[in-house]
Amino acid sequence: VSKSWGARARRQVVRFLRDCTQRGAGMPLKDDFERDGFLLVKGFASRDECKGLQGRMHELIGKWDPDQTLAPVFVTDEKQQLQNQGRSDYFLDSADRIHFFLEKGAAGEDGKLKPSVTKERSLNKVGHGLHVADDAFRSYSHSEKVSSLVEQLGYKDAVVPQSMYIFKQPEIGGEVTSHQDSSFL
C-alpha cells in the first residue's frame, strides 16, 4: 500500500485485502463472481464514501431542470427498450454525460413531470457517464480499491463502460424485467 495515499485510503485497502485473504487469497471472490455473476463485498464502500456520493447526487438533482430536459422513461422491456432507448439520442449521448431517466408514471403525456411527483421521486436512474463527467464519481470508480478488486477477478486493462446511480422509488415506477446491461451496450 503506497505511503502517498491518505491514511483512510490505506486503511480501506488494507481492510479489503485482509477480507480477501480471509476468504482464501482472493480466489473465492473470483469463484463466487464466476458462479453467481455478482459479488457482495460487505464494507467495501465506507459510510463516508456512500454519504459523499449520495450528497453529490443530491447536488446533481438540485441542478437538474426537468423542464429543460424532457428525460425519457427508462424501461427494460425489450420491445419498449428498442423503441425508447435504442433510437434515442438522449440515451445514446448519456455514455459520457450525466443524464436523468424517469420512472414510469412520473411524466404526463406531454413528457413533463406530473405536478404530484417531485423531481427527486421521479427518477429511475442517473447515468451513464458519471465516472467520466463528475469528479466524485470518477474518483470512486477509478480508486485503487476498485482497480484492485477488478484485477483480483482476473481482468487486465479493464475500463469502465458505464456508471449508474439507480433509485428504488416508493409508490411509482414500472417493473424491471430480467436483462443484462452488456446486451444493451
Architecture overview:
- By secondary structure, the chain is mainly α.
- It has a domain of 120 residues: Sandwich (Jelly Rolls), CATH 2.60.120.
- Helices cover 48% and strands 8% of the residues.
- The protein is built from eleven helices and three strands; from the N terminus they run ααααααβαβαααβα.
- The chain has a three-stranded antiparallel beta sheet.
- The radius of gyration is 19 Å and the shape is globular.
- The mean pLDDT is 82.
- One of its GO terms (molecular function) is metal ion binding.
- Pfam families: PhyH.
- Its cofactor is Fe cation.
- Keywords: Iron, Metal-binding.
Summarize the structure.
With 185 residues, the chain is mostly helical.
CA(first)-CA(last) distance: 35 Å
Structure summary, number of beta strands? 3
Helical element count? 11
Q: CATH homologous superfamily of the domain at 65-184?
A: q2cbj1_9rhob like domain
Radius of gyration: 19 Å
Structural class: mainly alpha
Give the overall silhouette.
globular
SSE string: HHHHHHEHEHHHEH
Mean pLDDT: 82
Largest β-sheet summary:
3 strands, antiparallel
- Any low-confidence stretches, pLDDT <50, length ≥5? none
| The first-level CATH class name of the domain at 65-184 | Mainly Beta
